[in-house]
Amino acid sequence: MAVAIVSGFLAFYWLWVRPANPVEARLREINPRAVEEAPSQPVATLIVERVAKRLDQLTPTPSPRNVRRLRRRLIQAGYFDENAVTVYRVVRLIAALLFPVGTFFFMTFILGRAVDTTTIGLTFISVAYGLFLPSFFLSRMISNRKGRITRALPDALDLMVVCVEAGLGLNAALQRVGREMELVEPDLSEELAITNREIRAGKPRDEALRNLGDRTGVDDVKSLVAMLVQTDRFGTSIADSLRVFADSMRTKRRQRAEETVAKAAIKLIFPLLLFIFPALLIVLMGPALIRIWDLFGAIGNQ
């Protein structure tokens, strides 16, 4: 107990007197107000990241190609932190360790089974589940985020058309649309904000737009980026191109809605067959079957 208390005190003391970040120190010299207004990370986040870095050293180092692929998936899921890869790998390691321990404890101590081949086999299978579940949940998060961005894109394009036709440039229109959609569609607003920061930092606009398509992984956004790059390269009207593209996006959204409605009738067949029809048969045919059973019983007694 004393060791745990002393360790916790030392951990918090180290976080409190940790060395200053040289980037923050330099920014404070240039613009102290900007550093004060910048949001700081919570202490819990710092503790998790530091513990994850320590535990990540126990795992084998992955290849740079796998690291790039994993970082791209995490960015598509909305995790832009530089330590996201380390935290994800540590989560996978902890899941791969906790699942077999929990399975073995449940089989032996709760169910009271002996340590046989079934228990050992389920323990090894749970290791695979522990390694698979983080990747599964990450894929689901990527799919949900892509769906939210896809649904928000037509409305964002309509706002962008209004802004461009009102006289704003493309950069100002992107910034304005991202700010207007912050409360309604935060995912797309965050992506547009990152694109604006890249352009303001000096990155060419076509490169920043291509990064937008790569970060989201949405085909419609990639088509929009290709259209904007070609329009900027050939000098055609951005307002006309955006208006045509917005019309096509509204048509695609209506077609997706019609497709979803058409699929609903097919998807309802399985719940009807498995849950609703059996209950209806029991309610409708149950009393008749009981009467028939009693009638045959009376005939047999005679």
Task: Describe the protein's architecture and organization.
This protein folds into 2 domains: 11-144, no CATH class; 146-253, Receptor-associated Protein. The protein is 83% helix and 0% strand. It contains 13 helices and no strands. It is flat and about 100 Å long.
Briefly summarize what is shown.
The protein contains 13 helices and no strands.
Uncertain segments: 33-40
- Could you tell me the strand content as a percent range? under 5%
Oligomer: single chain
Tally of domains? 2
Structural class: mainly alpha
Characterize the overall form. flat
| Order of helix and strand elements from N to C terminus | HHHHHHHHHHHHH
Q: What's the helix count?
A: 13
Main sheet summary:
none
Q: How many strands in all?
A: 0
Helical content stands at over 70%
Whole-number average pLDDT?
79
Q: What's the end-to-end separation, in Å?
A: 81 Å
The radius of gyration computed from the alpha-carbon positions, rounded to a whole number of angstroms, is 29 Å
SSE arrangement:
Blueprint: H1 2-16, H2 22-30, H3 32-37, H4 43-56, H5 64-77, H6 84-110, H7 117-165, H8 170-180, H9 186-200, H10 205-216, H11 219-234, H12 238-267, H13 269-301
Essential attributes:
2 domains; 302 residues; flat; mainly alpha; single chain; Receptor-associated Protein
